[in-house]
Amino acid sequence: MSDRPAQRDLPIGFELLSDLRLLVYLFVGFRLILAMVYQPYVFDVFEQHTDDITGEVTYTPTTIERGMSHFGDLRYYYQFAELVEDGHLPYRDYWHEFPPVWITLFTGVYGLINLRGAVDFTAWASAIGLIMLVFDVGNLYLLRRLGRRLHGEEVAVALPWVYAVLAAPVIFPWWTFETMVVFVLLLALTWLLEGRDNQSAALTALGTLTKYTPILILPAVWRFYDRRRAIQYTVITLVLIALVLGPLVAWGGRMAMASLLSQFNKASYQSVWALLDGNMRTGSFTGPDTRFDADNAFKPYGNEPAIPSWLRILPFAGLGLFVFARPLRQDDQGVVAFFSITVAIFFLWAHGWSPQWILTLSPLILLNFPTRDGVLVCVVLGLLSFVEYPVLFMRTGDSGGEISGPLVLPYLFTVLTRTALLGGVVVALYQRLTRDLASAAEDTQNTETGAAHETV
Fold it and tell me: CA-CA distance, 154 to 370, in Å (whole number)?
């Protein structure tokens, strides 16, 4: 069934752009060609070392990665998937820093490929990248669907095209699993707006079991819907999460608890809080060798916070409660804007910053601000994120992965500018939630006054 608008007398250019199938063909075709030309693969090289005293020559193997997955986390995840072959299972035999859905997916893909023979990184990473592509096609469709609901047909046509040509959605599906998180978020939000509360709550639970961010939809449910619906939605979400995590913890014990809590114990990274703490590294954990000891999940791997966590949360909790208590517009645009400001405040509060979060932010920014300014914010966020990583961090080999020397100033500029830009997004979203409310009230008053004059 065609997704074209109902009008027949459309300019040929608009009719071409409004054809969602054409966009999907281009979207998928472009990414498949990149996947073929820049296939992920690894190979070993041997570095020669000569002892200054004895003159003895030794060779040290070094693994080099190339292709679309280069600079990303797929090879890191692959090392954990390989442990399955030796009978080591996540949450039972070793800890992993994410909820269970993602690690189940990438170990499951490894196991399926292994049924047909030996698994190599190229086959596994390509399979993961193609799965993420399927989710990203879903993101295109959901942007179209949400754009039409919030702003009408013209915006519904434009937003998927904008998303399709942004750099982050091209790169991150080959680096991490944020694309899947974005799909679950957008679909849960879509179903919530359409009144399909049970399905939306189930998706929120699934998203939280993939990455903790989707749980942030609950404040929007409590703010915009009646108490009965909010309680039902929350109960479904939390019960489904408990039904998965409860048996998982009972099965894995302390190793499972270490997996679920590890993200909350590590030191700050790539944020203004990390600058204050003097942590000039990424937020990466150590490799598989240290994961068989649950105690390692509770080590900070960096300096202790200069501002205690309980103190840092106070102003952001206060800001969130202030926005929650204010009179806000009560339409679908208000729900999306409130959810978006919740996510942005959470990212500002978080002790670290992950570059892939721009994949979550970009669709939300476009849905709230389908304008040139909204697009430019997405572009600038992408530029800042890629300057930070890989451009700066890939030049820290001599310092053991720590920003130092001439890299410090551009790094400070990148982190501070990105934080200021995200703060500006929060302000703009707040204005959208409140200023538009005043305009709507004024329009309603004018309409009622006009009707009264006509009656007289």
Answer: 10
Query: What's the pTM value of the predicted model, to 2 decimals?
Result: 0.90
Cα separation, 217 vs 186, whole angstroms: 10
Amino acid at 361: L
352 half-sphere exposure, CB direction, 13 A CA radius = 21
Give the pLDDT mean for 46-55.
70
d(CA 430, CA 344): 11
What confidence tens digit (pLDDT) does each residue in 117-144 have? 888 999 999 999 999 999 999 999 999 9
Domains of the chain, residue spans: 12-448
Question: What are 225's two structure tokens?
Answer: 């819907």
Q: Which alpha helices (H) appear in 268-401, and where do they start and end?
A: 272-277, 309-325, 332-349, 357-368, 372-386
H-run or E-run covering 419: helix 408-455
Contact 306, 277 (CB under 8 A): yes
Containing 111, the helix (H) or strand (E) segment is helix 100-115
Distance between CA atoms of residues 97 and 99, nearest Å? 7
Q: Tell me the one-letter amino acid at 266.
A: K
